[in-house]
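The instructor's notes for this session suggest beginning with a concrete chain rather than abstract definitions. Hand out the sequence below and ask the class to guess, before any prediction is shown, which regions might be ordered.
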Amino acid sequence: MKRSTGNITPLAIIVMRCMVGSLALLALASNSHAALTASLDRSSVYDNESVQLTLRVDAQVGNVQLDVSALNSDFEIISNNRQQQYTVSNGSAKSSTEWNLVLIPRRTGNLVIPSLNLRGEVSNALELKVQPSAGRSSTSANVRPIFAEAVVDKDSVYVQEQILLTLRLYTSVSLTDYNLTPLTVDGATVQQVAENQYQKRVDGRDYLVIEVRYAVFPQTSGELTIPAQRFGAFEAPRQRQFGGFRQRGNQVLRNTDNKRIEVLQRPEQIAGDQWMPSAQVELTETWSSDLGELRVGEPVTRSITITAEGLTGAQIHPLNFAAADDHRVYPDKAQLETRNTDDGALGVRIESMALVPNREGQIQLPALEVAWWNTRTGQPERTVLTGRVLQIAAAAAERQASLNTAAMPSAETPPEASAAPANAAQPSRLLMFSLSANALLLSAIAGLLLLRTKSAIQPPKKNLDRLDHNRTSLKQQLKTIRREATENNLLSMRQSILEWGQMLLPETPPKTLQALAKQLQDSVLHTEFAALDGHLYDQKSSETIDLDRLFDQLGRQTVQPTTAHRSGERPLQPLYPNDGSR
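After discussion, reveal the predicted structure:
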C-alpha cells in the first residue's frame, strides 16, 4: 500500500509560523541580559537634517516586530532596516538584532526620542537638539542639484581662540570619488575635527550632505581670511558599462565662499602666561596608591589632568608647584593630547610627579589653580583644585623595629615556663594505632606528590601558551626599561620596572620596588632597587646603580622567574612545615 504525499496545508503553515514565533519569544525571554539599547549618531542637528537611530538587542527575535509608532509625533521616519547576526566563537554562540532608522525632525527645539518596548524590554530615552537654520548660509537651493557652502560659528574672536569652520557639499544626484582641497590658512593653525554624511531636506528636496569640520586657531590679530575650498566628485554612470568595466561620469566641481574673521588682541589686563581662551576648563587628580598607606621615604605618583574646550593640548599652560620642606616632588614629562569632539578641539594636559614624604604626620598640599579666559562670557576665570591633607606613617623599617620591640618576651617569664610537660606514658595500643595511621598518611602523601610532579613536568598546553604570551609581554617591557635608561629618564624607568613586576606577578601585584624584590626573593634586585630609590629620592645618598647588573637580573627573572611566582603555577607546600608556619 502506497502512502500518499500531498502539499502542506494552510493550517500546517500557520502552526509552523506560530512555533517559530514562540521559539523567538522564548529565546528573547531566556536572555536576561538581552537589554534593548538606543543610540544616535549625533546629539545636535539643524532642522531638515537627518539623524540615524540605532536600536539593538543581544538576541534573535524572529518575526517579532518593533513598534516605532511613538516616534511619528516628532519625527518623519525615512527608512527602517533590520539586521540579524548569529556568530559562534570558541564554542560560544552570540546573536543580536539591530534596527537602523533614518529620522528627520518635524520641528526645532529639544526633542525626546521616547523609550520603545520590545516584549517587555524597554530602551533608554534620548535627547536630540534641533536648531533652526534661519540666519545660516543655507543657500536657497531652488532647483540646483549640487551646491556647497562654508559656515563659521563666529565672526569675531580673540587671538588663539577657536573658530569652528564647517564645509558642506549638497547633492541630490548620485556622486562618486569625493575629494576636498586641503585647508591651509595664513596666520592660523588648522586641525580637522569631524567628517560626516547625512541627508537634509532643502526647499522640499532631499540632499545627501558631505560635511567636513575644522578647528582654526588664529595666531595674530587683525583680519583673518579663510580661503574658498573646492569639492570635487564624479557623477555616477546611469547605464551599465559595456564589458563590465567601470567608467567615471562627468566631473563635478563646487567652490565655497571665503570667510573673513576679525581677530582681536589679547586683553591688556591678562598676562601672557594666563591667556587660555576656552569655553570650559577642568582640573582632576589621581593617585597611584591608597592615600591611607603613605609612609616616609616611599614615593607615590600624583597625576593632574587639565582639560580645556576649544584649545589644543599645546595651548594649556603648565602648573606651578610651590616648594615645601615636608615633601619632595620629582615631576615627569607632561603628556599633551588634542581630542576631536562635536564642538571642536578638546585639549588635554597630564602632569605626573613622584611625591616623597620627608616626615611622618600631616602634610598639607596647597590648592592648585588655572587662570583662563571664558570665551562664552568674555570674562577672566579661575579653575581651582582644592588642596588636601596627607597623613604620613613612619618608615617601614622604623615601624617594624617598634613592633619587634613590643613583641619581645619578658626575661622573667621564659616561653617554656608555662608549657606543661608532655605525658610520656601512653598506652601501647594507642601508640601502635598512631604508627599505622601515620604510615598510611605518608603513603597517601607520597602518591599525591608523584601525581603532582607528573603534572608539573607535563603542564597543560593552555598554561604553556599563557606562559609564552606573558614572557613575550615581559620582554617587550624590558625593551622599554632599557630605552628609558638610555635616555637617562630614571624616574620613568622606575615606573616601568614596577609595571614589569605587576605583569610578572598579576595575582599579587607589588606597589613598591622593595615589595617586588621581596616577593621574588631576589637579593640582587633588592640591592639595585635600593640604590635606584636612593639616587632618585635621597639627595645625601652616595650609592651608584649598576644598570648592567640590574638588566641582567631582570632578564633572568623574565626568562626563568622564581619558582614560587611563575605565572600560572602555585608554590609546592613543604611536607613538614616548621614551627613558624604551623
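Then share the key points. The helical segments are 10-30, 396-407, 428-457, 461-486, 490-504, 513-520, 523-537, 547-559. The radius of gyration is 36 Å.
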